[in-house]
Write a structure and sequence with these properties.
There is one protein chain. This protein has a 4-stranded mixed sheet, with helices on one face. The mean pLDDT is about 95. It starts with a helix and ends in a 28-residue tail after the last strand. A hairpin with a 5-residue loop joins strand 1 and strand 2. The chain has 2 helices and 6 strands; from the N terminus they run H-E-E-H-E-E-E-E. By secondary structure, it is mainly β.
Length: about 120
Amino acid sequence: MALDSWISARLKRNADGLVCAVVQQYDSREVLMVGWMDDEALRRTLTEGRVTFWSRSRREYWRKGDTSGHAQYVKTVRLDCDGDALLVEVDQVGAACHTGERTCFLAGGDLGARRGVRPD
């Protein structure tokens, strides 16, 4: 079974045929991780209720949690207005990051950005 053609036609893929997938906890809105999907990974995610990614390093599909037990159960999948990014809202079991952290955005640390102030 292939990804629905109306969905596939809306995707803007990178040079490797992949779309960036931002994964967010559905109830707290915490950003957990970023992964990559091709049409097949997205089809599996949309139809199986668990998140599947394409591993760029291993060159194979992987379903989050199959080896770690830290599964991601799909709540919604949305495509951004340009068609080049997905927002995957999930119910995360355990850690989302391979380091064992809840989110992949802790280990990298704060980069010290200057905080902007909105004018009155």
